[in-house]
Design goal:
It is built from eleven helices and 23 strands. It is an alpha+beta fold. The structure holds fe (ii) ion. Fe (ii) ion binds next to loops.
């Protein structure tokens, strides 16, 4: 009897609901909703049972019969684990809704998984073990965007990953082999709130904002419509007090030292916007290797080792690390801190990185600032100031850090011209309440921070006042 019931259970999905060709997989995950999608070999009216993990007390059903199934689950609570099961499927899926407050975040970046299916599978298997909260795919999901077979292969390889983890892809040049993106748009549902035609979109996860662009929406370059959207989206994110980190994603990024090289349009039209709004890192693919670098203050990454034929990695003056290998990248973000590592598919680490938004002075390589302790940062060589951005950036940081602090600069090693060349515009504007005259203070290599309770004129003698200084 038990055997009979088991056989019946296995056969029912095939006979009543058809074979599951794609999925079930999740898309458009947010704090309060998720989209469940799947495709069956024969038409039926899809139904999903779902609820908080362990309590699947709700269900939703399609209004008509078909082979492609698309159900949006709404009214979910933020930052909760849910389970779902499509009727006829023997497996459940699990997902966690987006948090709306700061919490530790782990996400993965990979891309260019097209073409070599076995290699793509290796990358997917490695990512499944990492169990990230979401995934960014940097584009080129398929060999040909006009081939339904290629999308079928993608979803077969990614089935167990996408059942539980939401992927947020960028459109690659292989997707736009079909300029209408018809198949892509049938199966991929990016967040709709800030989306236009599913081609560019953005979303927030905890204190992170991620903007995803389409490199190829205007004659293989960025259209003016998209550039306007990028500007408004990043402006809003930069002004949002809940957002600490901004990442952008585009398939062919502005910087790469491998085969395709830099994207000159991205450099001339997009990078100025990214810099204007303080983007923390721009992610890309297209070149089938790994590269991380920093170009004129903008961090960049090429993560294109997801299965496509590998390209030789190169180096430019901006490259920090590059390697030609199948890989994925893990990002960890918590509060002001960002860290991560790039992994080969065998699990070995090839490159790690970190930065913090909480104290950009420390990010520039200087010691951490503590209000309680004297500050000790070596800026003996004025060129160090210019190399790390500009001295004024550092002064701004310090001013922000000690909200009411008075800052002035003194020494005798450099001329006014040198100071101005270093970007220090405040040299002649010595705070009046220190009792010092700007003509007394020539120069800079010591930056003194005098707190409001310090004694005027005592800044030269740290032992006699409540001075915090950088020397
Ligand atoms: Fe590409």
């Amino acid at each position: 009897m038990r055997l009979y019931i088991t056989i019946l259970f296995v056969l029912l999905p095939l006979s009543v609901f058809g074979q599951f060709k794609k999925g079930p997989y999740i898309q458009e995950l947010s704090a309060n909703s998720v989209r469940i999608l799947w495709e069956t070999s024969s038409a039926n009216k899809g139904r999903v049972v779902y609820g908080l993990r362990g309590f699947p007390d709700r269900s939703v059903e399609e209004s008509s019969s078909g082979t492609f199934h698309n159900l949006l689950l709404t009214g979910l609570l933020p930052d909760r684990e849910y389970e779902y099961q499509v009727e006829g499927d023997s497996k459940k899926g699990y997902f966690r809704t987006f948090p709306v407050t700061i919490k530790p975040v782990k996400f993965i970046v990979y891309g260019d998984n097209r073409t070599n299916l076995n290699d793509h599978q290796k990358v997917v298997d490695a990512i499944i073990k990492e169990n990230p909260m979401f995934i960014i795919n940097t584009g080129d999901l398929v060999e040909s965007g006009i081939s339904a077979d290629d999308y079928q292969k993608f979803f077969e390889i990614e089935r167990e990953l996408l059942r539980n983890i939401c992927i947020f892809p960028a459109i690659g040049n292989h997707e736009v082999i079909d300029p209408t993106l018809t198949i892509y748009k049938k199966y991929i549902f990016p967040p709709q709130k800030n989306s236009q035609n599913k081609e560019w979109y953005s979303f927030d996860f905890a204190n992170i904002h991620i903007s995803v662009f389409n490199t190829y929406d205007g004659l293989l370059t960025f259209s003016s419509d998209q550039l306007k959207w990028i500007e408004s989206d990043l402006k809003a994110a930069s002004e949002n007090p809940s957002i600490d980190h901004i990442f952008t994603v585009m398939h062919h990024g502005p910087y790469s030292a491998s085969n395709h090289g830099d994207n000159s349009t991205a450099k001339s039209k997009v990078v100025p916007i990214l810099k204007k709004y303080g983007v923390d890192m721009t992610l890309a693919g297209h070149d089938h290797n790994y590269e991380r670098g920093e170009a004129e203050g903008l961090r960049y990454m090429v993560a294109g080792g997801g299965g496509a034929p590998l390209y030789s990695s190169g180096t430019s003056k901006y490259t920090i690390y590059s390697e030609s290998v199948l890989h994925y990248v893990v990002f960890n973000v918590y509060g002001p801190d960002v860290s991560g590592c790039a992994y080969r598919v065998d699990g070995t680490v090839m490159d790690c990185f970190n930065w913090t938004k909480g104290n950009p002075l420390a990010d520039a390589g200087y010691e951490d600032i503590s209000v309680e302790d004297s500050l000790s940062v070596d800026v003996k060589d004025i060129s160090e100031l210019t190399d790390t951005g500009s001295a004024n950036d550092i002064i701004d940081v310090i001013t922000d850090y000690y909200e009411e602090a008075d800052i002035f600069i003194q020494d005798t090693n450099y001329s006014d011209t040198e100071i101005k060349d270093a970007g220090i515009q405040d040299a002649a504007e010595i705070p009046k309440d220190t009792g010092r005259d700007s003509s007394d203070v020539n120069i800079v290599s010591d930056i003194f921070i005098v707190r409001p309770d310090s004694q005027p004129g005592a800044a030269n003698d740290s032992s006699g006042c409540n001075c915090h200084f950088i020397e």
